[in-house]
Amino acid sequence: MTQLELAKKGIISPQMQAVAEQEKLDPEFIRCGIAEGNIVIPANINHKNITPSGIGKGLRTKVNANFGTSSDYGNIATELEKLRMAIDCGADAVMDLSTGGDIPAIRRAVIKVSSAPIGTVPIYQAGIQAIKEYGAIVRMSVDDLFSAIEEHARDGIDFVTVHCGVTRSTIARLKEQGRVTDVVSRGGAFMIGWILHNDCENPLYEYYDRLLEIARKYDVTLSLGDGMRPGCLADATDRAQIEELMVLGELVERARKAGVQVMVEGPGHVPLNQIEANVKLQKAICKGAPFYVLGPLVTDIGAGYDHITGAIGGAIAAAAGADFLCYVTPSEHLSLPDVEDVRQGVIASRIAAHAADIAKGVKGAAEWDLRMAQARKKLDWEAQMKLSLTPEYARKVHRKHASVGEACSMCGDFCAMRLVSEYLNVSTRKC
Predict the structure, then answer these.
(1) Neighbours of 24 (CB within 10 A)
(2) What distance in Å separates the CA atoms of residue 166 and residue 162, rounded to the nearest whole number?
(3) Of all residues in the chain, what percent carry a pLDDT higher than 70?
(4) Does residue 73 come out as left (phi exceeding 0), alpha (psi in the -120 to 50 range) or beta?
(5) Which side of the chain, N or C, has fewer Cβ within a 10 Å radius?
(6) Minimal CA–CA distance to 45: which of 156, 148, 145, 142?
(7) Mean pLDDT across the chain
(8) Domain boundaries, the chain
(9) Which residues, 6+ apart, have CB-to-CB distance to 309 below 8 Å?
(10) Contact at 8 Å (CB) between 182 and 231?
(11) Closest CA relative to residue 343, chosen from 121, 147, 90, 46
């Protein structure tokens, strides 16, 4: 049985128990959340070395790191290096989005060594294979697409992005909308091209039950992709995006009835003042399904710094109820990320996630900050390093300029906390 089926039967699985221990929550809370569909544990039965991670309501906001080859660059060695960096920096999940080289070999190498849940977008492999065999993505058969999905599931992939909501109706809305950037989702673009060329409905929507059968067989969590996500602020929260979301809301309910775990992906590029509304709309339409957001990026001009624009939006989205942040790296929109981009992207998103957890009252979040504040008050540098998000980097920065006293080199002899502590102690003694 899947995690969802077990939870509905009142059974606490080892994966639920492990998540409860990580989150310091009652296992029954985890079971109930899964049974209701507002928590998922992506854990394929064939991913043997996985450390289960829970995503959803009442849990710590999770962070995903993307990597993968392109048609221009990358191989197994480069992607395994990125994987290690992502996990070392604290990513809760990873996605292999490879579109170049030996895609199955890269995926299997990642599965073999990754303890984190792994996601993929199977249409990438199916589409690229169609180019090799038939000369074009649009010549991909329905069986080709579902064969790729089952191959990923059989290999041990824990969650798959599937663009089921890109339908004829959403394409019609897109045509009427007159967007600035049209479609920026690769999977969405593949699907739109296939639908228009073949004059057929999206097979992931038309044959959704076939997809559910595969997901249930291996307990793969469906991540319902946002093929119509806005690629710039001007396109945010438009009719095409909302039309797709309406379809995804229906598919969430069908997945739950079939015993399949499901989460929903969200935008994209969204102005600050629209983020909370987007999250609340998704939660309402999709009946509380965990919400997985890319960023969202709050401005279009942050080229080279989009890990920052994404972290700003991610903090707001998570505070409003989003559950899972897909990191954005400095090289977003510019190039394939390297290892350093992965590091910066994970750290920026982890800061955003933690800031949101404080706002949401997630257990232990505010307490972590309180311990850091107490260590700073005491000028206890070793405690501050241990409590930092990245202890080794914090040590490196602290040692950058030597200080002769207890304080750091920022204030030196004029450290406010040290001076005020002395004044208060003197005042207390006189009284």
Answers:
(1) 9
(2) 10
(3) 98
(4) beta
(5) C
(6) 156
(7) 95
(8) 41-50+63-312+327-344, 379-430
(9) 295, 297, 298, 299, 302, 328
(10) yes
(11) 90
pLDDT given at position 158: 98
For residue 398, how many other CB atoms are within 10 A of its CB? 15
Radius of gyration in angstroms for the set of CA atoms belonging to the chain, rounded to a whole number: 23
- Tokens 């990923």 appear where? 152
**CA distances from residue 125 to 131, 145, 208, 332 in whole angstroms, order as listed:** 10, 9, 19, 22
- Calpha distance 337→161 (Å, rounded): 20
pLDDT tens column, 13-45: 999 999 999 999 999 999 999 999 999 999 999
Where do we find the tokens 């079971």? Answer: 31
Q: Which two tokens stand for residue 215?
A: 């997901």
Q: How far apart are CA 305 and CA 284, in angstroms?
A: 32
Please state, in angstroms and rounded to a whole number, the distance separating the CA atoms of residues 11 and 34: 11
Give the pLDDT of residue 400.
85
| pTM confidence score | 0.94
